[in-house]
Write a structure and sequence with these properties.
Length: 184
């Protein structure tokens, strides 16, 4: 039997708790409530348009598409970060829930040349990065078109890519961060 020191278990629990909290940025809100504690966002993120005033749907998904470039490494020097975050216009492809086995990988991580699940909707974000789509209840994967490839950089523990779940009479916020040109 292998003995694991209590200190190692405690450190692991703290790490995974922080990781789960830090990765839960997609807010679920009903069509009648607008939540938005933005205190956990960086100054750069806070200066971007939230766009929640543009929502016109009563069921489906909405969010923002932001392009991250440059150095976003944490630092105690406020002037050391040279990275930028910009709202961008992009084509967004919503497919039925897609796993890593349902795509054909392309150059580098998070890029795909082919998605082998049913395409549900194609929409575009506006110049402020805002997008929305009315969807029936179900599970979907969201991809962004980058040149001739599809980009998605989030995975569940089951290998589902950029997964969003839609419930009856609810809207789900799903933030799309395009980060392949950023360092963290």
């Amino acid at each position: 039997m292998i003995k694991i020191p209590f200190k190692m278990i405690l450190i692991s629990i703290c790490f995974f708790s922080f990781f789960l909290f830090a990765c839960s940025d997609n807010d679920d809100i009903s069509s009648t409530e607008m939540a938005g504690d933005r205190s956990h966002k960086s100054e750069k993120q806070s200066s971007l348009p939230e766009n929640d005033d543009k929502i016109t749907i009563s069921q489906g998904v909405w969010g923002n598409v932001w392009f991250w470039e440059g150095d976003h490494m944490p630092s105690t020097d406020e002037n050391s970060s040279t990275g930028t975050i910009s709202p961008v216009t992009r084509e967004i492809y919503i497919h039925e829930a897609t796993t890593i086995t349902d795509v054909t990988a392309a150059q580098g991580p998070s890029f795909y040349s082919r998605i082998n699940t049913a395409l549900i909707a194609t929409i575009s974000s506006d110049s402020d990065g805002f997008y929305e789509a009315t969807l029936p209840p179900g599970a979907y994967s969201i991809f962004v078109k980058e040149n001739d490839l599809f980009y998605a950089n989030s995975f569940t523990g089951n290998g589902e890519i950029n997964l969003v779940t839609i419930e009856q009479d609810r809207i789900q916020k799903y933030q799309i961060d395009i980060t392949y040109q950023a360092a963290f």
